[in-house]
Model the fold of this input.
Amino acid sequence: AQTVTQSQPEMSVQEAETVTLSCTYDTSESDYYLFWYKQPPSRQMILVIRQEAYKQQNATENRFSVNFQKAAKSFSLKISDSQLGDAAMYFCAYRRGGGSEKLVFGKGTKLTVNP
Amino acid sequence: DAGITQSPRHKVTETGTPVTLRCHQTENHRYMYWYRQDPGHGLRLIHYSYGVKDTDKGEVSDGYSVSRSKTEDFLLTLESATSSQTSVYFCAIRGRNSYEQYFGPGTRLTVT
Done:
C-alpha cells in the first residue's frame, strides 16, 4: 500500500524568509502524481502545487516550488518570501496513475509564520 | 473554488440517528468524492462516484453509504451514527486535468 510521510509535525519561519516542508512516499508504481494542499484555519483544502511523476522538471507556482527526487521518493515544498497568509496546515498527497481515484494524504505539517 | 457547496456546514447529532450530508457542484464534474479528516490521520477516502448511480468504496467505507441520483449532487449517509464518526467531512471533485481533486468547504459532524 502506498504511504505518505510528513516527518515535521510543526515548522516555523520568519516573514519574508524561505522554508522547506518535507514529504516522502512509498510506492512501487512508476505512474503517479503528487500534490501539496494548504489548509488554513478556515478549514478549506486548497491545492497549492502538483507534480506528475513522469516530468523531470520541478513544478513551480509563484512563491511555491517543489524539489521532486523520484529515486529517493521525496517531494518537498519550498515557500519563498513567506507571508503571514501562508500560515496553515500543509498536506502532501499521492495519487497512483492508471485510473486510481484515491488520494493518499500525509498527516500534515503545521506552518507558523512569525512577523 | 470549484463550485462545490456542502450542507450542512455543522451538525450535532446523537448516537444511533441517521445523518445525511449533501455535496452539490455546479460545473458538471463526473467524479465526486467523500473524505473524512481526523487528527493524526490526514484525509481518508470514504466513497467516490464516477457518474450518476455509479459509486465505489474507498478505504474507510464501513458505516457509510452514498447515492448519486443526479450529476450535481452526491449524498453521504450514516445510517446509524456512532461517536467514531465524529469528524470533518470533505467533498471533492476531479478537476479538468483528470488527476487533480478540488475540495468543498467541509462539514463538521459531532456525534454525541
